[in-house]
Design goal:
alpha+beta; Methane Monooxygenase Hydroxylase, Chain G, domain 1; 2 domains; 5-stranded antiparallel beta sheet
Length: about 170
């Protein structure tokens, strides 16, 4: 179980603070007495998420450690990029990486898209909307988690992340 006040990664909501637990009242399709976490997304302090403690449908995990964060950034040169595929298959790969809940997968996606975007620009082509959307989403997830883990503001975390890609 997660502790009150702890920050966790919760599915597509990103980093959330565990505000407490509560026993859910019975409702249609929900068994009585099911314990739920009350989560507050970092990016939307006015939002409240209630999710079962034993939720198996949404990835809930502890944030990575500062040491793991630094190691991931050092590993960027060795991280493989996603293979070139048809546009449809590529988007499926992007979506799978984005929804994995895994920082290494997010770094792989950002690295793939950084190279793809740069290649397109060098050829005088525009960045595709799909590439741009997934690049921004994966970058936001990494910046959000890194900023909390390393206790820095989002701007510093983004600069650190982008600097790690430039130096790889």
């Amino acid at each position: 179980m997660f502790c009150i006040g702890e920050f966790i990664s919760y599915g597509n909501s990103g980093v959330c603070e565990v505000m407490g637990t509560e026993v859910m009242e019975p409702s249609a399709g929900s068994p009585a007495g099911r314990e739920c976490y009350i989560l507050r997304p970092l990016h939307d302090q006015s939002c409240k998420i209630m999710t079962p403690v034993d939720n198996q449908k949404v990835i809930m995990r502890n944030l990575i450690s500062p040491e793991e964060t630094k190691q991931l950034l050092e590993d960027i040169p060795q991280i493989e990029t996603l293979p070139e595929q048809s546009a449809r298959q590529q988007e499926i790969s992007y979506s799978k990486a984005l929804h994995s809940g895994n920082c290494r997968e997010w770094l792989c996606l950002v690295k793939t898209l950084t190279q793809r975007i740069e290649s397109r620009r060098q050829k005088g082509k525009k960045v595709t909307a799909t590439d741009d959307r997934y690049f921004k989403a994966a970058t936001e997830k990494l910046v959000e988690e890194f900023s909390v883990v390393l206790k820095m503001d989002a701007g510093e975390a983004k600069d650190m992340l982008m600097g790690a890609f430039e130096n790889s």
